[in-house]
Amino acid sequence: MRRVYGFHGGIHPAENKHQSLRSPIRDAGIPPQLTLPLSQHIGAPSRPLVQVGERVLKGQMIAEASGYVSVPLHAPSSGTIAAIEDRPIPHPSGLSAPCIVIDCDGRDEWIEHSGVADFRDCEATELLELIRSAGIAGMGGAGFPAAVKLAGKPGASIRTLIINGTECEPYITADDILMQERATEILEGIAILRHLLRPEDVLLGVEDNKPAAIAALEAAAAGTGVEVVTFPTKYPSGGEKQLIEILTGKQVPSGGLPADIGIVCQNVGTAVAVSDAILRGRPLLSRITTVTGEAVAEPQNFEVLLGTPMQYLLDLAGFRPERCERLVMGGPMMGFTLAGTQVPVVKTSNCLLAPGVTELPAPPPAQSCIRCGLCAEACPASLLPQQLFWFAQGKEFEKLEQHNLFDCIECGACSWVCPSHIPLVQYYRASKAEILLLRRDHERAEQARLRFEARQARIAREEEEREAKRAARKQAAEKRAQLAAAEGGEDPIQAAIERAKAKKAAQQANGDTASPAPAVAPLDALRQKLAKSEQRLAQGREAGEDAKIINALEATVTRLQGKLAEAEADAASATEAETR
Amino acid sequence: MSLIRISSPHAHGATSTSSVMRQVLLATLPGIAVLTYFFGFGTLVNVLWACLVGVACETLAVSLRGHSPGFYLKDYSVLVTSVLLGIALPPYAPWWLIGIGVAAAVLMAKHLYGGLGFNPFNPAMVGYVVLLISFPVQMTAWAPPRGLAEVPGLWQALQACFLPASYDAVTMATPLDVLRQNDGLLMEDLWQQTAQFGRWAGIGWEWANLAFLAGGAWLLYRRIFTWHAPLAMLGALALMAALFYDGGSSASGGSPLFHLLSGATMFGAFFIVTDPVSSAVSVRGRLVFGALIGVLVYLIRVWGNYPDAVAFAVLIANFAAPFIDHYTQPRSYGHRKTGGKP
Ligand code: SF4
Ligand code: SF4
C-alpha cells in the first residue's frame, strides 16, 4: 500500500450520495433543442463556424478554438442551426452569453469519424492536437482545456500523473458511477495519457466512501501499473492541491502549477473523454450529470448531451418544482445557483442539485464573528478565514494579500463550520474581484503614466532636435561669412577685427612694450609670487618649522593659487572676446 | 417559479454560536454547584442577579445602537459574560457591586468596542478588575468554606445581596492569601496549622476547581474549543510552580498541584482563557497566549498583591494577543514561510 498523507483542515459534511446511486447511468436522449454556449471552459470563447439555417451532423465541429487556451465545440446531435445569439447560460453571474442553438432532427446522424489505429504510434503533438480538437475541457468542474494542461510547460518533465476520482463534494456521484460502469474506458484514457506524458507513477486517487468504484477500478487496473490509491473521506480532498498533497505529500507552490513540481492532475471524466476522442474519434458531446436533491422524485445519473436544457433533465428525474426554491449547478459546497431551469447542461455540469426547502435550508442571518477559530481549523489552505473576513469587511486589501487571500480555493469549509453563519466565501470572492479590478486599474494607470512619460520625452526630444538644427543653421551661416571674409573681405566686422589684430601683431613685433596687454602683467606678477611662496613653504617644511607658520604658508599658497586661476580665466575670456 | 440565488456553500454544519454559548453555560453548572455546596448560595445569587443586569444592559446597548435586542440576546453571549462574572465575584457581594461590574463588562468592555466579536478584552475580566481596583475591600472578602463555618442559606444570601447593610458577613482568608502572607513556616507546617487547607489545596477550592475542570473537559469533548490555550496555561502554571517549589521551604510558592487546584485556575483555564474573541487566533498563537497567562498567573499570585491573578493575567494577555497573532500566522498551503509572500 502506498503511503497517503493528510492535509490541514477539512470537514465531514453529510454525504448524501446514496440517493443518486440507486440506478445505473441513464441515457437522457435527444431533447428537441440544444443550446451550446461558446464559452464552456476557462479561456477564450470559441468562434462559430456555422450559419443559421445550416444543417449539422452529430460530431461536426460548429465552433473552433480561438487561441491557445480555448477549445472547439461540436454538434452533440444532428439538426439545423436555429440561432446564434445570446442566451442565459449557467454561470454564477446569471448573465446571458453567445450560444449556438440547434433544432435537433432526432436522427442523431453522425459525421464520418474514426479513431486512430494505434495511439502508441502517434507523436505527442499529434495526440495533443486530437485531444484539443475534440473539445475536451476539464470535466471535474473548473473546465480548464485538457490539452493545455497536458502540454504543460516546455522542458518540465512530469514524474507523476494523478487521476482524480475523489469526488469529495456531497451529493455528486457522476464520477463515482462513471468509475463503477466505465472503469475500462478510464484505464484506456489513462494509457493514452501515460503514452503522452511518460510519467514514472500513475496514481488514481479515490476516497474510501466509494467501495464499488474502487473494486471496479482495481479490477481494470490490475497489471497496468496504475495504482488505485484510496484514502479517508474528507472534504475537500478532491481539490487538486489537496489531492496532490494527499498522494505525494508535496504542496503546489503558491501561484504555481502542479507541473512545477512534476505533477499533472486529470479527472476520471477527462480520461474517458480522451479515450473516446483518440480511440473512437468521438469528440466531447455528452457528459454524466447527477440530478439529485429532494425536489426530484428519482435522483440518478444521466448521460446527457451538452446543451440539453436543465428543465428537460429535471423532468426526466421527476422534478417537483413546488419543493424547490433553489437550483444549484455543482455540489452544495462549491456549486452556484441558477437563475432559471432553461439554462443548458455544459461541459462542467457535473451535478444539478434541486434541494428541498428543508433539505438545505437557507442560512439564518449572520451573527457576529466570535473568533472561535473553527474556520481556521477547517481551512485546507491553512489560512486564517476569520482574519480574512475582518480585513474584507474593512476593505484592507493589502492585509488581505498578506494573509494570502489568493490561496483561498473557495472550498466553503470555513463557511460550513462557522457557528455564526457568516457567508465568508462570499466576502472572499467579492474581495478577490475587487483586488483584481484595482490591479487592472492600477495597471491601466501605470500604462497611461508610461504613455504620458513617453509623450513628454518625445516632445522634449523633438524640441532638442529643433534646437540643434537652429544651432547648426547658425554655425553654417557663420562659416559662410568667414569663408566670404577670407575670400574677399566682404564682411566689414570681420575685416575690422583683422585689421586690429594685424596692428597689434605689428606693435609686438616692433618690441613696443610701453603698453603691454593689461591682463598679462598682473598674471606674471602673480605667478612669481606664487612660486616664491611655494618655495618658502617647501623650505619651511624641510626645516621642520612651526606648524602655525606652515599653516599660514599653506594658506597663502592656496590663496595665490585661487587668485592666479581667477586671473587666468579672466585673461582667457578677454583674449577670446578679442578673437571674436 | 422564482429561484433564490445565494452564494456557496449551500450546506452548513450544525454548530451555531447560540448553541456554543448555551453549552458553555451548561458547562459552568458543576462548578456553580460545588461553589454553592461549599460556600452557600452566594454564588448562585451572584450569577442570577448578574444575568438580570446583563440582559438589561445588553438590551439598552443594542437598542441605543439602533438594532432589535431580540436577535442579539439570542446569541447568549451576554449571559455567558454575566454568569462568568457572577462566578468570579466573591459570594455575598452587594447588589450594586455586581451591578457595576456587569455594567462595566457589558457596556464598557463589550459594546463600547462595537459589540460581540470586537472586544479586545475579556468583558467579564474587565468587570472584575474594575471592581477590584475600585472596591478592594468588598472584592477580597471570601466566605469560609463548609466545615469551617456555618454555610449561609438562600435567604441569607438574598439578604446579603439586596440588603447588604443588614447582613453580617463572615469572611476568611483564602488559601492563596494564606500562602502569600506566610513567612517563616515550612509548607508542611503551614498546611497543618491552617484550617483552610484540604487534601491538595484549599477546602472547597480543590473541589470547585475539579468541577470546573470537568465542565471544561466536557466542552473539549464537544469540540467547543481546542485544548491549546487551556492546556498551555495549565502547563505553564504547573511548570512555574515546579520551578519555584524548592521542596516546600517557607519561601516556596506552593506546589504545582496546589496552584492547579487553587483560586480561579480551572475556571480561568476553561472558561476565560478559552474566550475566543479576546484571545489569539491561530493554534500556535493560542499556545503562546495560554502559556503567557499561565506564567503571569504564577508571577502575580506569588509576587503580586492581589487575591487572585487570573483576571490581570488574562487582560495583559488580551493586550498581547494582536502581537501574538502577528508573529504566529500559520504557513499557508504552498508557502514556504509563514505569512506574506512564498
Ligand atoms: S468560524 Fe465564524 S465565528 Fe468562528 S472565527 Fe471563523 S468566522 Fe468567526
Ligand atoms: S473557502 Fe478559502 S478560506 Fe474558506 S476554508 Fe476554503 S480555502 Fe480556506
Can you walk me through this structure?
The complex is a heterodimer of chains A (580) and B (342). With 580 residues, chain A is of the alpha/beta class. Chain A has 3 domains: 18-353, Rossmann fold (3-Layer(aba) Sandwich), CATH 3.40.50; 380-431, no CATH class; 437-505 and 519-579, no CATH class. Chain A has helices at residues 124-133, 146-151, 174-181, 183-197, 211-221, 240-248, 268-280, 310-316, 374-378, 385-393, 397-402, 413-417, 424-488, 492-509, 520-543, 547-579, and strands at residues 26-27, 33-37, 47-48, 55-56, 61-64, 73-74, 79-88, 96-104, 160-164, 201-207, 226-231, 263-267, 286-292, 300-305, 328-329, 336-337, 351-353. Chain A has a 6-stranded mixed β-sheet, with helices on both faces. A 4-stranded antiparallel β-sheet of chain A has the order 2-8-7-4, with no helix packed on it. In chain A, helix 3 (174-181) crosses helix 5. Chain A is elongated. Mean pLDDT of chain A is 86; it is low at 512-517. By secondary structure, chain B is mainly alpha-helical. Chain B has 17 helices and no strands. In chain B, helix 6 (95-111) crosses helix 7, helix 13 (228-243) runs antiparallel to helix 15 (265-272) and helix 13 runs parallel beside helix 16. The relative contact order of chain B is 0.11. Chains A and B meet through strand 16, helix 9, helix 12 and helix 13 of A and helix 1 of B. The complex binds iron/sulfur cluster (2 copies).
